[in-house]
Amino acid sequence: MESLYTYAWIVPACPFVTSGLIGLVSFIFPKVTKDLRRVCAMFSILALAVAMYISFNLFKQQIVNHSTYEHSWSWILNDDISIKMGFVSDPLTSIMSILVTTVGILVMIYSDSYMYHDQGYVRFFVYLNLFAASMLGLVVSPNLIQIYIFWELVGMCSYLLIGFWFARPSAANACQKAFVTNRIGDFGLLLGILGTYWITGSFEIRESCDRFNELTSNNSVNYSFANICALLLFLGPVAKSAQFPLHVWLSDAMEGPTPISALIHAATMVAAGIFFVARIFKLFEDLPLSMNIISWIGGITALLGATLALAQKDLKKGLAFSTMSQLGYMILALGIGAYESALFHLITHAYSKALLFLGSGSVIHSMERFVGYSPNKNQNMLLMGGLRRYMPITGTTFLLGTLSLCGIPPLACFWSKDQIIVKSWIYSSSFGCIASSTAVLTGFYMFRMYLLTFEGEFRANRSDRNTLSLVNNNIIWGNTQMTEEKSNLSSSLWNELIDSNKKPIKGYKEKNSFTSKASYSSESIYPKESNSLMILPLMILSIPTLLSGLIGIHFYQTETGLDLLSEWLIPLRGISQYEENPDNLIQVLIDSLGSVSLSVVGISISYIIYGPIKNPYISKRWLDSFLFFLRDWSENRGYIDYYYDRFFIRGIRSVSKLISIFDKWVIDGMINGIGISSFLGGESARYGEGGRVSSYLFGLMIGIVPLLI
Question: Which EC number applies (predicted)?
Fold first, then answer.
């Protein structure tokens, strides 16, 4: 058994070595690598497949033995400090390794087709392998120093991948924004690690958590200082997992290629923060103040992310704010002590969100031939519609992911989200209201995205023939009939569509599908289903989207009376009565009617507004005002970026200018003044030297006379 655990280091090593080899070969032999670039993709997939195979075997071994294994060796050793490196294999490590490797392999298969014509194809796979290796290294790390090293590598890879198309100004700005925002969280994390070491004298996670709890329970350490250290540790996940108020980078990160958006939002970067809080959860448990702050940050993030997604017109940004909201659910669950429920939602959400992002990439890939390569157009849901008829597999799988995220049984996210909502109500009515409201909003905005993208009529082809034909199509109500007036469309979306069609995007090559009569054929004016390499990952991801929820419910009870996930986590958490639910499956479904009703309410409202049937009982004036407010709130991201820019960025720049002026005119002025004075004095003295001894004696006498007086 132990011999199998000793191979755990191979899991992160496989993609790391592959990344280095591909990068080295492409640097030495660029032409050969470019000609054989698909071989690079095959090696990348093979390396991650080996890592996945080992992860599954380790997980199988742990299910049987309920054991953990840790191996480390000294890296820096002296009389004052001891830093070790190594790897740990426990249930949390195995679950996260399986999550990262399975999603990573599917993203790589998908990327082979999606990025095939991109000039940076090989570079993309180098970054992708390094990203997966960094996340897997983070997962197997047994101490805080090693976690911090891989934590920074994850941030660096996200910077490289978000700014992959760095020639695009928006992508360059987005990767810088993500990097700077995460530096704030990483600095707090570093201070928290140093503070924890100062208290416990150890960087090892298990030892430092036990020692920290022992000292706080005995009042051997100041309670306020302990909370400060804990919250500084939590500041890292706040930035990495896009929690309020450091969430502002997440939607801009959509400037990267869609496959990497799927990996970031499903199994790597944003999941790193949730994993880290789960890894050091014992440190937070005995600090009620810290747990309460964590809960409120999670609740605010969940509700804020849902409101920001309500009226997004960009498909990927809508999914990004959805990720932010669901991450808030997970942090809320951790804050109220629902450890298993948070990990359960992390697993179910990862597969559902990967499915949705890869589905959106399939849509964007098909839209490019109609509206060009500008993200403002090929990701604009107002230019889509009716795609389910032309892309049936993409539409069906996207609908599965949508229903799962909305919380509709028996799909995966239903089970995990229902647990969080129920336990939020048990813990506090305030958190229960937040979780329930977010569930309603989730049903609304997710179905809005599906309806605008896949239902109704395809609108991009008509927009090229005539600007008004797109506007006259009733996007709000979903009416497929053409009208001569704009009364069925809200004024805000009318102006928005007119602007988006009148303003060309500079720097992008636009495609016009209507330059000839032949372009009006059904083959050319409607999208096509993506190829098999892009469809296959969608079909595979549909399976865990349907079935992964079974691990956290009492469909199959173990000898301890727990569900499978809680049984697997016994070595970490023991048997928790709070997590135990003795009811059978039928009773669970009956008890979950409340959360399902919340989702159905949101879906129904979305269908009434955006569905194919016009409802005459809704006031047009009220609806236009409401939609204008939602659009304004969503497009301005709740005005948070505006206030950050106004008070922080501009404030820092103003202070920097004042400091620069002070440095230039005061500090430099004093130094330069002394130098100039010395120079002028020397020059003046030089002109007083004539070389005559009588003149020198006369000057000497003039100087002596005052002294004698």
Answer: 7.1.1.-
User: With contact defined as beta carbons under 8 Å apart, do 158 and 240 qualify?
Assistant: no
Helix or strand run (H / E) with residue 197:
helix 169-200
Give CA 642 to chain center in angstroms. 21
Q: DSSP per residue over 144-180, as a string?
A: HHHHHHHHHHHHHHHHHHHTTTTTSHHHHHHHHHHHH
Please, is 4 exposed, middle or buried when counting C-beta atoms within 10 Å of its C-beta (0-12, 13-18, 19+)? middle
pLDDT number for residue 620: 53
**φ, ψ for residue 87, nearest 5 deg:** -150, 155
Full-prediction pTM beyond 0.70? yes
* Model pLDDT, residue 653: 87
Residue 36: pLDDT band by 50, 70, 90 thresholds? confident
Report yes or no: 605 and 618 within 8 Å, Cβ to Cβ. no
| DSSP 8-state assignment for residue 521 | S
Burial string for 145-178 (b: 16+ CB within 10 Å, else e) reads bbbbebbbbbbbbbbbbbbbbeebeebeebbebb
206 by Cβ neighbours in 10 Å (0-12 / 13-18 / 19+) ranks as: middle
Asked whether the predicted pLDDT for residue 279 surpasses 70, the reply is yes
pLDDT tens sequence across 158-173 = 999 999 999 889 999 9
Say if CB 89 and CB 142 are below 8 A apart: no
Side chain identity at residue 672, one-letter code: N
Q: Do you know the residue count of the chain? A: 709
Terminal alpha carbon distance of the chain: 103
Q: Amino acid letter at 482?
A: M
Residue-wise pLDDT for 555-613, tens only, equals 555 566 677 888 888 777 655 544 445 456 676 667 778 889 999 999 998 888 887 76
Report how far apart, in Å, the C-alpha atoms of 606 and of each of 228, 328, 449, 609 are. Answer: 43, 23, 9, 5
What H or E segment, with its residue span, contains residue 226? helix 223-240
Q: What angle do CA 483, 484, 485 make, to 5 degrees?
A: 95
Q: Cis before residue 410, ω within 30 degrees of 0?
A: yes
pLDDT at 506 over 50: no
d(CA 393, CA 355): 12
Per-residue pLDDT tens for 54-99?
Answer: 999 999 888 887 778 888 888 877 767 778 888 998 889 999 999 9
Bridge partners (DSSP) listed for residue 74: 84
Could you give the CA distance from residue 89 to residue 8 in angstroms, rounded to a whole number?
Answer: 7
pLDDT for the residue 501: 47
Do 455 and 388 form a contact (C-beta atoms < 8 A)? yes
- Block residue for tokens 């080899």: 21
* DSSP 8-state secondary structure symbol assigned to residue 204: B
- Look up tokens 């939607």; give the residue: 251
DSSP one-letter string for 1-12: -HHHHTTTTHHH
Q: CA-to-CA distance for 402 and 448, rounded, in angstroms?
A: 10
